[in-house]
Design a protein that fits this description.
Layout lengths: L20 H31 L6 H37 L25 H22 L2 H14 L3 H34 L7 H38 L1
Helix pairs in contact: 1-2, 2-3, 2-6, 3-6, 4-6, 5-6
Length: 240
């Protein structure tokens, strides 16, 4: 089974510009239009809600925009990064590195994952999973009262600010990630055993590894998006 990375096809954006000017330029190109667009979307949501007879205050509308940005932009980016890092650690372990000696997430550069052909049925399955994750994030975190109920529960269970932050990380990041991982990977493993792929060809094992890495990466990204959505929502309620 080959874990050879796919060939690099794209050059870095603004590759001729020296650091840190390249990073600053990219931030300006992304952050400034992003902030303006976020406020424009917030006002648009407030106007639409008013016309529909369900008035929405600025905090609720802005929080909805934040959740939409996290769901539609951050989630796929985080999933792609986690997928790439998962293959990176797989290559490390294939080279003899033990699990305890693996590098921390994002601590070193990675090669692209190997190219694996995906049939249309699997692509549709992945798209449906994305829609499910996006729907869950919006349903749970877009309404501010949901966030306030969770915050009250955390206040009752914690013993101070430090323990509250630890509890937030566990409840809003780790637990959603583990639940999603179990919901996605356990059926995939059962399907593999039913199809008798334990003694399959190297290409089939590569395809299955790519499939499980993709599902696991989506679960990790879902936990990250869940934690971010909760934290940003609390900031909206506290500071706006």
């Amino acid at each position: 089974m080959s874990l050879t990375p796919a060939p690099r096809k794209r050059k870095r954006f603004l590759s001729t510009m020296a650091e840190p000017w390249r990073t600053l330029t990219i931030l300006m190109l992304v952050v400034v239009p992003g902030v303006l667009a976020s406020f424009a979307l917030t006002m648009g949501i407030m106007i639409v809600a008013e016309n529909l007879g369900t008035p929405m205050d600025f905090n609720q509308a802005f929080n909805t925009v934040i959740v939409l940005i996290i769901s539609l932009i951050f989630l796929p980016m985080a999933q792609a990064g986690a997928y790439r890092w998962t293959w990176h650690t797989d290559r490390k372990m294939a080279d003899g590195v033990s699990i305890g000696d693996l590098p921390d997430f994002g601590s070193e550069p990675t090669d692209p994952p190997p190219h694996v052909q995906r049939p249309l049925k699997r692509k549709l399955y992945y798209a449906a999973l994305y829609c499910l994750c996006i729907g869950l994030l919006i349903a749970i975190y877009a309404p501010l009262p949901h966030r306030e109920a969770i915050a009250r529960l955390i206040d009752r269970l914690s013993f101070g600010r430090r323990s509250a932050w630890s509890l937030i990380q566990i409840m809003m990041g780790l637990v959603p990630s583990l639940l999603m991982m179990a919901a996605l990977l356990v059926p995939a493993e059962r399907m593999r055993k039913r199809q008798g792929q334990l003694a399959s060809s190297a290409q089939q094992r590569l395809e299955y590894q790519a499939h499980t890495n993709w599902l696991g990466s989506l679960a990790i990204a879902f936990g990250m998006a869940s934690l971010l959505s909760f934290v940003f929502g609390m900031c909206v309620r506290a500071y706006l």
